[in-house]
Inverse folding.
């Protein structure tokens, strides 16, 4: 579910997010987000986009159902789906997949080669 | 995907565009429930019985031709998918297992264990589509306009999300299969790309919509504790199999206050359950997150495990032990009965433009039976692909760059602008979701719907923050999506205002009864940039 209204517990947590458009020219932005028990890393990123910085690029589809399998990233150094990786009050760190070409921020090129637009752009 | 498969085997080539990754977005992937088709494996059944049940649920508003197509061709699609390796759950006798969902007179709902129907169906279609040379798949294309030339659909304009470039596509025919609109509501069970873009694209291209007032709300979607890795509407099969008591925030049963009865059974119809839950919350008797409790504490652990096996483990991983704690549930926007107006060949009134799947309106009338959504995705997709291929065989492309100029310019304009002082589009989307949730939910009045129109107008006029474009620019994607969401939301509200009665999923608190004079389907069209709702001859007022 998106945009649901959570009762504010007042507890905040911090998420460090890798931002950048080239793998060697990035930075970590730190966001404070309201913490709710059981929240996912994706919940935190969606909150950041809606409340702090909408330009944060992140790929996801089914919103926490773990059905589309498109929200993979490095969470605290481990490859994980951001929709099932939990955030704790101690915070967490999210980075793009290291072995995939970077597109922007947390989005890497996970599109199968035969689903890409022809570089010439022209097709019958 | 089914449309592309059907086009390919009818000697056409197909280009399959998806805003997310092909076959990983939309509603199907998230659907964990069932697919209804009268294959008669579980017990004797016939498609005409399925049709009777579908028409009864539709409360006199189903397009009988489309409903018949859905029910008659459902079995062929189930068997074809079986041949492609869909892992329909089977019994010891190797027959496909079917369950009886509410509203169906027979056990006719096929499924993939455990709660894996949607991913199973989507995976099967993805594999099948990838084996077909005539089908070219392109992921991450957000289509922003259908190109129409001499009154005919001749292609599309879109944004290549990854590069940020504008792209154009020439096509002899276009099938819109981009799903429903539930993302226009604050609480929804939607994927991120269910913003109703198919409806807006159809309207802008000159096609008509029908039954836009009929949005299906699911009464007991999961609300809390935080549950990840599951479809929020997963509690439905739990309730058919195990019952489960609905309790308000004071842990009291409440359904009897609204003319229903609950007591651990599952007999209250969806609309009544939604109404009762919303009223309890309004009266200050909701659960902490603004819903009610669904309680299975009376069901022994062994019974829970016997019914749902590995799902119980997934719940445990979410910290949910049903024998100890009730969960919080609330109504959520779940499906849309209305949509693009098509004939029995899936043709819209714009030659060359077709609809398929949930984007099509009419088959389910005023309310949809559980299990009919994936069936219509399969059946209507197959029909649209086959018919489109037949219609364009031997015809030349009608594409002209000039016809696409307006759409390309509009998109380039959106990409080129910079204004940091405005409001981010995703924030405006959230405002729209709140406006629609509060004023155009399942229970509406003329006053609320008027406020919804005001809210839509304010959001449309609000300054939108735009930042320089580039690769994977979600601000731009959100802005393009917002434009479509506003058009679609307005069409829902105008249709809801036009129907001064209560029927199926459309409940007008200011007109609580059904009105026989309104047995008919409202049509929404866009004329000179304005949306209008009209009744067919002989219906309405």
């Amino acid at each position: 579910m998106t945009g649901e209204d959570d009762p504010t517990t007042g507890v905040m947590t911090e998420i460090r997010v890798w931002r950048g458009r080239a793998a060697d020219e990035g930075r970590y932005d730190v966001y404070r987000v309201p913490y709710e028990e059981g929240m996912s890393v994706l919940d935190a990123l969606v909150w950041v986009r809606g409340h702090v910085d909408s330009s944060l690029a992140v790929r996801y589809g089914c919103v926490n159902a773990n059905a589309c399998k498109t929200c993979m990233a490095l969470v605290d150094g481990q490859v994980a789906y951001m929709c099932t990786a939990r955030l704790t009050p101690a915070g967490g760190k999210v980075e793009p997949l290291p072995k995939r070409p970077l597109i922007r921020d947390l989005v890497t090129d996970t599109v199968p080669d035969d689903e890409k637009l022809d570089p010439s752009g022209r097709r019958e | 995907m089914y449309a592309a498969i059907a086009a390919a085997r009818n000697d056409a080539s197909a280009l399959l565009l998806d805003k997310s990754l092909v076959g990983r977005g939309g509603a199907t992937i998230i659907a964990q429930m069932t697919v209804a088709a009268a294959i008669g494996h579980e017990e004797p059944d016939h498609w005409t019985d399925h049709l009777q049940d579908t028409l009864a649920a539709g409360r006199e508003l189903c397009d009988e031709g489309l409903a018949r197509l859905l029910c008659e061709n459902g079995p062929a699609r189930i068997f074809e998918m079986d041949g492609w390796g869909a892992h329909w759950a089977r019994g010891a006798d190797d027959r496909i297992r079917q369950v009886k969902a509410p509203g169906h007179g027979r056990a006719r709902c096929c499924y993939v264990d455990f709660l894996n129907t949607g991913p199973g169906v989507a995976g099967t279609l993805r594999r099948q589509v990838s084996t077909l040379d005539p089908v070219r798949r392109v992921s991450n294309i957000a289509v922003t306009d259908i190109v129409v030339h001499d009154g005919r659909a001749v292609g599309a304009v879109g944004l290549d999300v990854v590069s940020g470039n504008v792209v154009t596509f020439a096509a002899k025919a276009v099938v819109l299969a981009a799903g429903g609109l539930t993302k226009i509501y604050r609480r929804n069970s939607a994927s991120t790309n269910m913003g109703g873009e198919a409806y807006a694209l159809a309207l802008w291209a000159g096609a008509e919509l029908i039954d836009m007032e009929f949005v299906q709300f699911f009464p007991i979607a999961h609300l809390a504790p935080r549950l990840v890795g599951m479809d929020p509407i997963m509690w439905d099969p739990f309730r058919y199999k195990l019952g489960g008591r609905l309790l308000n925030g004071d842990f009291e049963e409440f359904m009897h206050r609204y003319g229903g009865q609950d007591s651990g059974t599952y007999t209250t119809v969806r609309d009544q359950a939604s109404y009762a839950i919303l009223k309890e919350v309004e009266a200050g008797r909701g659960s902490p997150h603004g819903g009610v409790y669904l309680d299975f504490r009376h069901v022994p652990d062994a019974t829970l495990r016997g019914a749902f096996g590995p799902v119980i483990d997934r719940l445990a991983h979410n910290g949910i032990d049903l024998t100890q704690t009730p969960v919080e549930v609330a109504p959520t926007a779940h499906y849309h009965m209305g949509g693009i107006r098509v004939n029995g060949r899936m043709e819209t009134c714009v030659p060359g433009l077709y609809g398929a799947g949930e984007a099509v309106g009419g088959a389910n009338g005023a309310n949809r039976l559980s299990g009919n959504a994936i069936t219509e995705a399969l059946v209507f997709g197959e029909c649209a692909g086959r018919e489109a291929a037949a219609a364009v065989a031997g015809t030349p492309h009608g594409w002209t760059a000039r016809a696409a100029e307006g759409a390309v310019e509009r998109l380039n304009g959106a990409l080129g602008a910079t204004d940091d002082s405005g409001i981010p589009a995703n924030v405006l989307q959230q405002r729209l979701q709140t406006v629609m949730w509060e004023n155009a939910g399942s229970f509406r009045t003329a006053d609320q719907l008027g406020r919804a129109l005001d809210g839509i107008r304010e959001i449309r006029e609000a300054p939108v923050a735009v930042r320089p474009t580039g690769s994977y620019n979600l601000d731009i994607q959100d802005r393009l999506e917002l434009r479509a969401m506003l058009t679609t939301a307005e069409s829902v509200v105008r249709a809801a205002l036009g129907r001064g009665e209560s029927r199926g999923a459309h409940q007008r608190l200011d007109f609580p009864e059904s009105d026989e004079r309104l047995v008919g389907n409202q049509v929404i069209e866009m004329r000179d940039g304005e949306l209008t709702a009209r009744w067919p001859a002989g219906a309405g007022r």
